């Protein structure tokens, strides 16, 4: 069985380039279904989740070809609106094809999606939006089936600013007659990227990045060539990697505004941060301070960076408090960090971290994508050898993580077992 072996104690130095955003690539790939013309996406990361989405599009009838960091997607021959359970259970984002299929064909059928077991991520907000647009939605035997004779633009108020629901409703609304207004919409950079892509295809959308998005539906969409934004979570992970090893790393291909919440907490802790043109230089401080963190939807601190920051704070002397408000089960990495000597106490959605100077290498298990990244970071700072099992979780969201870390001087390798 594959595992990642990390020998800690080396300060990372050098430069690293961030790959394209996984969380932007997946909805944009789904949005290609709205067109009958070929779309070319650049800066697409080579990740397991992207490969699963390629399978999804092919199963629906699209032709997909990869050339280096580009994907060529031709949806002209799409002739199916139903996905089998075996595919949708592989990845949460597979549900994003629902909005695109409804926008183009007025029908879609998918099983409840899978993905990381970090907490409940129900489809109720997606379904609410589809129904308001005129769909009849039925849930039966683990499947969601939606169909409409005609989609009509409506006002949709989300109870929570869900990223997936915002994206799905945007794609369905592009194919609706009239105007759709999404209130309390998610504001993440990935939403803005999806709007930019759809508008390049010929859609009329404005407001992404704010809490109200307006979609003028009914227009025809054409093919487009498009560059996906850099991955802000990968950038944040390398920022923490520099800090936890007391290193000096220049991180290229970063949109600074997208990582401001992480930068703010690192700087509050005493990490040295220099904003460069198109990048960020991060140098670890000699005496870092504990900080408190509360995860929130963007522009708050991202839940996808909570495990990595916990790994860092476990090495910072003093007491830090982390409140997880987005997912109720996103502390599964705590037990694994404890194996490495971390002093962390969890009460409900609150984790109290009593930091110490050193962690100790141990055999640990990646329970989900970001937990796996956190354990690798902890291993970089720990004394001795850390073995991270089940690295396939990490492969879902990080392109060539070990190779990039080795380029910075880390002693890290993958043992295929």
UniProtKB/TrEMBL annotation:
Keywords: Cell cycle, Cell division, Cell shape, Cell wall biogenesis/degradation, Cytoplasm, Peptidoglycan synthesis, Pyruvate, Transferase. One of its GO terms (cellular component) is cytoplasm. Residues 7-405 form the Enolpyruvate transferase domain. It is an enzyme of class 2 (transferase). Its main location: cytoplasm. Signal peptide: none annotated. It is found in: Cytoplasm. Pathway: Cell wall biogenesis; peptidoglycan biosynthesis. The keyword Transmembrane helix does not apply. It catalyses: phosphoenolpyruvate + UDP-N-acetyl-alpha-D-glucosamine = UDP-N-acetyl-3-O-(1-carboxyvinyl)-alpha-D-glucosamine + phosphate. Its EC number is 2.5.1.7. Transmembrane segments: none annotated. GO terms for molecular function: UDP-N-acetylglucosamine 1-carboxyvinyltransferase activity. UDP-N-acetyl-alpha-D-glucosamine binds at residues 92, 121-125, 304, 326. PANTHER family: UDP-N-ACETYLGLUCOSAMINE 1-CARBOXYVINYLTRANSFERASE. Belongs to the EPSP synthase family. MurA subfamily. This is UDP-N-acetylglucosamine 1-carboxyvinyltransferase. It comes from Syntrophothermus lipocalidus (strain DSM 12680 / TGB-C1). The gene is murA.
